[in-house]
Amino acid sequence: MLITVKNIGSKTCDLTYHPVLRFDEMQWVPAARPDTRPQAVVSLAPGEQGYAGVLLSAADGSGEGGTTGHRLTIAFQGRTPLSDGGAPATPDLPAAGVAYDSSLTVTYWQRDSADALGS
Questions:
Q1: Distance (Å, whole) CA 64 – CA 35
Q2: Per-residue pLDDT tens over the stretch 94-109
Q3: Which of 13, 21, 62, 103 is the most buried (most CB within 10 A)?
Q4: Which of 107, 112, 98, 97 is nearest to 33 (CA)?
């Protein structure tokens, strides 16, 4: 799954670390993939977009506790890990929901969508 955010403000904004995801009422925070950490913070000028990739389940079936999420909250981080980075986003999901399991991971924010999906 690809998460796309756009700076609709009038100032440059920074996408620090990675998005913090929560499907429905999940009680755990999906891990960020360390191999996707960019060299520098992704800064978005007005009108620019940033991306993060979400691996919903392992291709080898090693994940456990498969379920379907119907609501996703995306929290943004501030200057220190897991600090408040502003209002969360709640994007629309398909009506049938999104299937995921315990192997759910997320990439760090990327400037290019191919980097978010190819990592």
A1: 23
A2: 999 999 999 999 999 9
A3: 21
A4: 107
